[in-house]
Write a structure and sequence with these properties.
FAD/NAD(P)-binding domain, 6-stranded mixed sheet, 370 residues, 8-stranded mixed sheet, D-Amino Acid Oxidase, Chain A, domain 2, 2 domains
Length: 370
């Protein structure tokens, strides 16, 4: 009789793929099901800034720091990967908020998070390619931060997934969890195909609360609509992720930039079929705001943009672990999917395989909403 644990993972984003690969490394047999393609939802439109900057709960900070650590290990194995780089993070506030920036820096220093408070004229000494004239008063540089292109990371992990014998079911449509005797027994696709499993992980981004609701589980959903723009290639020297009052900008493979923010959310229209649109001039306005941050102010031309829900639990904190009401069913639902992608997969797979709860996930259990 086989003792191999069979696990069904719902969701082809970074949390689902990372957990699937860690499960395979641990000896499980894994079926990974995606509604459409891999990285087709939030993972495909994430700024994916690797950080634990600013102020948050201590357990969340500790988990994020561990998350960045796992990326550093991956980076060290091949620093030439264009899709994973550590060039630091640079942030500043709008004019008149100098004290807020100073307070953030003081807090970061107090918890040992590497943080440099800079006058505009000092920025070029620590990171290249920035137009310091865009900084009104002061800025914070966090040298230990980085960025990842999540679709590239998913492709990288999927090579190992296939090498270890994982089973991939693409375009499965809406997938539900099957239950018998109060326990999760597998999954069923919208087309009626069923896959038996000893455990199920629901890692569907903003759709996660909807998948577990029929099981009698309520997880508050605070997910807003957001957009990620990728520019056409442009010559630049930027290595840091920038978070500023009117644009968030990071380098992206192929000499492009990835652009994000939230001021344009009111201009996004959601249609009855679930698609989204935004006026082209708003997309160009974000590109123009981003250009102001870059030395030489190069013309940035949007090449593509994707719009959808950004996963954020109702209380802002991650939701990780087994559902108390449905043993054998686990969830992974968090805002910081990029930063936590590798560490969450590692810790969740350990819980699924051994039944032992990891202490770093103690405050993030779905049962807190019961």
């Amino acid at each position: 009789m086989s003792s191999t644990k069979h696990v069904a993972v719902i969701g082809g984003g970074i949390l689902g793929v990372s957990t699937a690969v860690h499960l395979l490394r641990g000896g499980a047999s894994v079926t990974l099901l995606t509604e459409q393609g891999l990285a087709s939802e939030a993972t495909g439109r994430s700024l994916s800034w690797l950080n634990s900057a600013g102020e948050r709960s201590t357990p969340y900070h500790q988990l994020r720091v561990a998350g960045v650590d796992r990326y550093r290990t991956l980076f060290a194995s091949d620093p030439t990967r264009e899709w994973l780089q550590f060039g630091g993070g640079l942030m500043w506030n709008a004019a008149g908020h100098k004290e807020a920036t100073e307070a953030r820096h003081a807090y970061e220093e107090s918890i040992g998070y590497d943080s440099k408070l800079l006058a505009p004229e000092d920025i070029a000494k620590v990171t290249p390619g920035i137009d310091s004239g865009a900084v009104p008063e002061n800025a914070i540089f966090n040298p230990g931060e980085g960025w990842v292109s999540l679709p590239d990371l998913v492709n990288f992990l999927m090579e190992e997934f296939h090498a270890l014998g994982g089973r991939l079911v693409l375009n499965a449509g809406k997938v539900s969890v099957t239950v018998d005797g109060g326990k999760a027994t597998g999954v069923e696709t919208s087309g009626g195909a069923t896959y038996a499993a000893d455990a199920v992980l629901v890692a569907c981004g903003a759709a996660t609360p909807g998948v577990v609701k029929p099981l009698g589980v309520e997880i508050p959903n605070g997910s807003p609509v957001s957009m990620l723009v990728v520019t056409k290639p442009v010559e630049h020297r930027v290595t840091a992720v920038m978070n500023t009052p009117r644009a968030a900008v990071r380098p992206n493979p192929g000499r492009t930039f990835a652009l994000d923010h939230d001021w344009y959310e009111e201009h996004i229209t959601e249609h009855p079929d679930g698609s989204f649109t935004i006026p082209d001039d708003i997309v160009q306005e974000l590109a123009d705001e981003s250009s102001k941050l870059i030395d030489g102010n190069p013309e940035l031309k949007p090449a593509s943009w994707k719009i959808g829900y950004k996963p954020i639990p109702g209380d802002g904190e991650p939701v990780f672990g087994e559902l108390g009401q449905v043993p054998g069913c686990f969830v992974a639902f968090t805002h910081s999917g990029a930063t936590l992608g590798l560490i969450a997969g590692e810790l969740l797979s350990g819980e699924i395989l051994t039944g032992r709860k990891h202490p770093m996930l103690a405050t993030f259990r779905p049962g807190r909403f019961s």
